[in-house]
Structure formats: structure tokens, C-alpha cells
Amino acid sequence: MDRHGDQKHPADPSEDILPAPQQRLPHSASRFIVKSVRPYLLDLIEWETQKIAALQKRYRHVILDELFAHVGALGTHTAFLLFLPMLFWFSSHNVYRIVIQIADPTSEATFREVAIQTDLSRVYGRHLVLILGAGVYISGAVKDYFCLPRPYSPPVYRRSVSVSVAHEYGFPSTHTTNALSLSLFSSLFFAKFVADGYSPEAQITIHSVLAFYVVLIGFSRIFTGMHTLTDVIAGAFLGAAIVLVHWYFIMPALEIAFAAGWLVPVVSLTVGWVAISFHPEPDGPCPCYDDSVAFVGVVVGILVSNWHYTQLLFNASEYGSSFVRPLMPSPSNVQSGLRLLFGIVVIFLWRLVAKRVCYTVLPRLFVWLSLPFNRRFFTRAKDYKTIPSSHIFLTPSIMDLKKLAEDAPSVPAASNPGAANQPVRRLRSSDPSKAREALLDNKTDLKTPVDEPTGVPRSYKLPRYDVDISTKLVVYFGIAWWATEGLPLLFPLLRL
């Protein structure tokens, strides 16, 4: 293995080894920081790879492989997005109260104070989504900027339940960023708003569980060969920084802004556009940008819908309204079950219908308007006539844990040492340079067979289409709106 990430493996003469996207050569020399730092980080990755391989050689077991691979799923935005909507569908018995000054309509020269009360679970949920969205975006941008590989395989055996995650770059660990963000924010929120109702022993237990969750996620990423210790530490620092900045500077101001004028939608739409437009371009078809775009849609949707929902509740409390009513604080068990089922069905149907409509309308619109799209590794609308139905998944791609039997690598027995010594991916070709060029030009199918006996993972599915980006924005903005405004307004009307 050389210092730049190209691996040298013994291979069958009939096969040429094509490195996975996360193992490609460095960025161009125009990126000074990358050019200066990356060689040293590659040396560090190579050193850490040997340590992880030794750890796996000593402790690997089929049970531990399965356990830590699925533990890692608890640190993904997949898991968070599956459960976060419930924070907006069920009221707590606590409120978050702020007092703002508004102009008195009876006098142009005076102001009066108005208290705005928001359910505490909604406040917690919307800020947690914003923090997780920032973590996914920033960590993905850093990955695509440095393009640092994951621990080299071989000698490390990588184990993941998600194919797309396995084909992202390694530095920093998004799982650890998410886990640290969730735990630290939850700990701060609990201590300030909820802890008074718990005994000291219960408070210590809750904080300890949150801390253990972070350690468990971090260790699982190392043990499964998906990250180095450097990746995990960097992810933890990033998660902590995001939470602290949000807690002390963004959260207080944002709660006031939700009750103000048009500042929230204007700023959120502008920042969202900038974030999508200036995301770093990776050296390979890394799916980080796809996840970042999805979460930009979620974050903008959360901000706009929570702003509008607050405006509706504020106007209802000021002037009276028979339409806008807060959720029932204590629905019956039957109502809770129906509310949950109805909410999941609505979001599922929205996602399915919106995606199909976008994939039908947007390609023609892109060609008709000649819309520019300058990112690599995406097929342009002018180069295809239709999008295959297989590209439209029945469940959200970012919210779907791939079925293990279909998309995830099988786990070889720990007693089979040869299993960990297989290359990440093989493509049959008489000329390896042409294979690499085909990958970079987005002309390679990449749906290569799995080496089933050794559990080598399937490749990341290509092609990706230019309309994927606009579709993700529409779909995930809508999911955020349904979860935080549309459904909470519907539930009382439906007696749920």
C-alpha cells in the first residue's frame, strides 16, 4: 500500500482491482490545505489501519460483527428521522415560554409584552433536527473536501448495514457527530428544562446513559472497520462545537424569531441555497452530497413550517380561531396509536407521490429550461429519456436501512481469516486505467457481483441523476412540513 491510498493486493490475473471511491488519489494541487495536510493524514490512516486490523484479528466474532454493525445504525440520521416526528405529534406536560414585545395597535408609540408558550417537546425536536442537520452537512462537506479514505480493506474488514454509507469518505465520522450532538444537546436540554422533576440519582443515570451511547457508537465505528480513531475524535469535536454554538447563540434568538416577521423563511431559504451551491466537490461518487441536500431540505422545512405554525398559534391566541388548536396533551392509547399510524401513512404517501411526480416532471423541465448543473458523477437530463422505476425506492433512501439480505455484505465467520483479506471491489477489465476513467466519467455500471463467500459489499448504485437534487429538496421539505405543521393541525380536526 502506498502513502497516497492506492492499494497493492495480490489478485487473480483475470481481474483488475478498482479502488473504491473513498480510496482514490488526492485532490488537485489547487487546494492548498488538502495538498499540505493530506499526506500526513494518509500516513496516520495507514498506521491506524494496522491497529484496527490487530484489534479485529484478536476479538472478531460473528456475534460481535452483527452487534456493532447494528449498533452503528443507532447513530445514523436514518434512525433519528424515523423517530423525531413523534416529538411533534405528542404534547408534553411542559411548555417553553418566551416574552416578546410587539407594537400596540392602539398606539403607534408604545409596545406591549406578549408571552408565547410552545410545547417543550416541539422545541426540543426542532432544535435537535437543526443540530443533526448541521452535523450531517458539515461532516459531509469536510469528507468531500479532504477525501480521506476509511481504514484500508484489506487488512481491515469493513462491516456496515448501509451500502451508501460504506462508500462515503472517512474523515470525520458522521455517526459520532450525530451521537455526540444528540447526547450533549439532550443532556443540556434535560438539565435546564426537565431535570427538576427527577431525583438526583435518576438525573445521573440519564446523563450516564447518554454518555455511554456516544462511547458505544464511537467504538462500534472503529470495531467494524468503518472509521479510525482520528475520524471518531474529529466527529466528536465537530458535534460538540455545533451543539455549543447552537445552544448559546442560535436557539434563544431563533425562538424569538419564530414569532417575528418574515426573517426566518427569508434567511433559511437563502442559507439553504448557499449550502447546496457551495458544497465541496469530491474526487469520487461519494453520496455525502445527496445526504447533505436531503438534510438541507429537512432543515429549511423545519424552520419554515415551525415559523408558520407559531404564527398560526400566535394569531389564534390573539384574535381567536376555530381552526388552529394545539394538540391534546394526553390522548388515549387508541388515539395515540391511530395518530402514529396515520402520520406514518401520510408521510409515506407524500414521499412516494412527490418523488414520482418530480421524476416525471423535472427531467423535461430541466431540458426545456436548460438548467445548469455542474456537479460531476450525475447524469444530465439531456442524456437520458426516462428514469427507471428501480431508481424510485418505495421507502426514503436516506430513511431506509437497506435489507441485510439484499444490500448489506454477509458476515464471514471470524474463523475465516481469508475473508478480511479481500479487496473492497473488483471490476473485470483488461485495462485498469480505462476502468478508472469509466468510473470518473460516470459510465461504469458499478453493479458488480458480490463475492458472496467473503462478504465483499455491493457497489454504490449509479447512475445518479441531476434531478435527484431537486427531488430530494421537494420530498424532504414536504416531509418536514407534514411532520411539524400539517399533521399537528390535522390531528385535532380528526379527533386524534
Describe the protein:
- With 496 residues, this protein is mainly α.
- Helices cover 56% and strands 5% of the residues.
- It has 15 helices and six strands.
- It has helices at 32-59, 62-72, 77-83, 86-89, 120-146, 163-166, 174-194, 200-223, 229-257, 263-277, 288-319, 333-369, 404-407, 432-440, 467-493; strands spanning 16-17, 95-103, 111-119, 378-379, 426-427, 464-465.
- The chain has a two-stranded antiparallel ribbon. A two-stranded antiparallel sheet has the order 2-3. Strands 4-6 form a two-stranded parallel sheet.
- Helix 5 crosses helix 9 (229-257) and helix 10 (263-277) packs antiparallel against helix 11.
- The longest helix is centred in the last third of the chain and has 37 residues, at 333-369.
Outline:
The protein is mainly α and 496 residues long. 56% of the residues lie in helices and 5% in strands.
